[in-house]
Design brief:
With 190 residues, the protein is an alpha/beta fold. The chain has a single domain, classed as Rossmann fold (3-Layer(aba) Sandwich), CATH 3.40.50.2020. The chain contains 5 helices and 9 strands; from the N terminus they run H-E-E-H-H-E-H-E-E-E-E-H-E-E. The strands form 3 sheets. The protein has a 5-stranded parallel beta sheet, sandwiched between helices. A two-stranded antiparallel ribbon has the order 1-2. Strand 7 (132-140), helix 5 and strand 8 (159-169) form a beta-alpha-beta unit. The longest helix is centred in the N-terminal third of the chain and has 18 residues, at 2-19.
Length: 190
């Protein structure tokens, strides 16, 4: 009897996720951060407790049991999804940060974005050789930030299980820069 109730609860959660329209919860902001850019603001989805929980449930279901030892979250919105996801799949959490934000010895890499350039850093002891990691961020656009993170993780000898994004702008072809790494996006825009 207990087992049947648990199964029904899981099925109900799965049905609720399938019925949720994540795109309807994302605000589109034209001309931000500069003219000609259409910004997809995920804060409107995140503030909806049911939607935020559904996103995390969906990602956890996809990656649970994959022997992932670390979730690597990219600053800063990757932290919002990565921390709770790490907890749900019983993995550690590693932040990839902007330069000057990490207190210990770190690797750093420069990269280009769709409207500028930047650098990212990771502690040298954050991931051990051969550890299975999943990279998490809010958005895949041109792929520069994600590719820089992949580069950092390969320097550390990590095994990259995949990269997961809440939103992907497919027309910008960012996944092509990710050197064959598996990519999963919950929401896509062309």
């Amino acid at each position: 009897m207990q087992r049947k109730r648990g199964m029904k609860k899981r099925q109900a959660r799965g049905t609720a996720r399938a019925q949720m329209n994540y795109k309807a919860l994302i605000r589109e902001v034209p001309n931000f951060p500069k003219p000609g850019i259409l910004f997809y603001d995920i804060t409107t989805l995140l503030k909806d407790a049911r939607a935020f929980r559904a996103v995390l449930d969906e990602l956890a279901a996809r990656y649970r049991g994959r022997k992932i030892s670390k979730i690597v979250g990219i600053e800063s919105r990757g932290f919002i999804l990565g921390g709770p996801l790490a907890d749900r799949i019983k993995a550690g959490f590693v932040p990839v940060r902007k330069p000057g934000k990490l207190p210990a010895d770190s690797f750093e890499v420069k990269y280009n974005l769709e409207y500028g350039s930047n650098s990212l850093a990771i502690h040298r002891d954050a991931v051990q050789m051969g550890e299975r990691v999943l990279v998490v961020d809010d958005l895949l656009a041109t792929g520069g930030t994600a590719a820089a993170t992949v580069h950092l993780l390969r320097q550390l000898g990590a095994e990259i299980v995949g990269l997961v994004f809440l939103v992907e702008l497919t027309s910008l072809k960012g996944r092509e820069k990710l050197d064959g790494c598996p990519v999963h996006s919950l929401i896509t825009y062309s």
